[in-house]
């Protein structure tokens, strides 16, 4: 039985990886889009290894091949016992990939992260640290760009401008709430939190994806790590969760 578990795990994991990487966009809940080819290759490799093992040992496996007879023919004094029953729990993550894919990280992670102020960006020689926002109406922005400007932009490019931020709702202390995003460098394990506190609007349910329109709310001394990003909301609209929840890149353009 122990050998059966090993081979079936290879097959289930291979099918699960190919399912989330080829047939759905669920892999974006775990890794960056650029890692999709690696997931597909890993899924194919696991299937090949499982198929080779099954063909080599015979399937279903007999006792002689898996070593359960232990050389005492006729007495059945095998000492393996088929392996510990707890080994069956190894199927849980494999089956989860197929039938119960967990959601992307959300407010639980964001609310427990002691988010530090974003690092001050470095400008290239001759370039402005924070170029002016485009003229016109509402400016869509990423939470990362807004947070950096709110904390470090002493030139005041956010002053008097109406911006639009998209993220999920994260509850705070004493009724406060934030619009949040999680950014990843490689996978969900290295996710970094960006949160903007929202003033002047009632908080929707945690993990609800929203688009918040409003103006910069100065908080702390700009240009120091003591400043924090905040927004005075004029409108909060619920939106569907994006296909790639960790992608906070927004093409800055004017809106209405």
From TrEMBL:
Pfam families: DUF1980_C (PF21537). Residues 158-246 form the DUF1980 domain. The keyword Transmembrane applies. Keywords: Membrane, Transmembrane, Transmembrane helix. The chain crosses the membrane at residues 39-59, 86-105. This is TIGR03943 family protein. It comes from Streptomyces coffeae.
């Amino acid at each position: 039985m122990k050998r059966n578990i090993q081979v079936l795990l290879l097959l289930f994991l291979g099918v699960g990886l190919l399912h989330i990487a080829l047939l759905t966009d669920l892999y974006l809940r775990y890794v960056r889009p650029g890692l999709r080819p690696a997931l597909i290759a890993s899924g194919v490799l696991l299937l090949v290894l499982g198929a080779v093992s099954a063909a080599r040992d015979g399937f279903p496996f007999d006792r002689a091949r898996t070593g359960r007879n232990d050389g005492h023919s006729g007495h059945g004094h095998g000492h393996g016992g088929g392996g510990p029953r707890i080994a069956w729990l190894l199927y849980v993550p494999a089956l989860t990939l197929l039938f119960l894919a967990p959601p992307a990280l959300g407010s639980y992670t964001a609310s427990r992260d002691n988010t530090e102020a974003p690092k001050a960006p470095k400008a290239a020689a001759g370039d402005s640290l924070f170029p002016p926002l485009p003229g016109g109406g509402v400016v869509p922005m990423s939470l990362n760009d807004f947070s950096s400007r709110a904390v470090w932009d002493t030139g005041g490019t956010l002053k008097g401008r109406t911006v639009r931020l998209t993220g999920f709702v994260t509850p705070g202390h004493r009724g406060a709430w934030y619009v949040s995003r999680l950014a990843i460098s490689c996978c969900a394990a290295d996710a970094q939190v960006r949160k903007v506190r929202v003033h002047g609007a009632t908080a929707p349910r945690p993990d609800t994806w929203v688009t918040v329109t409003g103006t910069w709310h100065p908080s702390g001394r700009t240009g120091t790590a003591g400043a924090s990003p905040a927004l005075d909301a004029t409108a909060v609209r619920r939106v569907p969760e994006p296909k790639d929840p960790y992608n906070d890149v927004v093409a800055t353009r004017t809106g209405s």
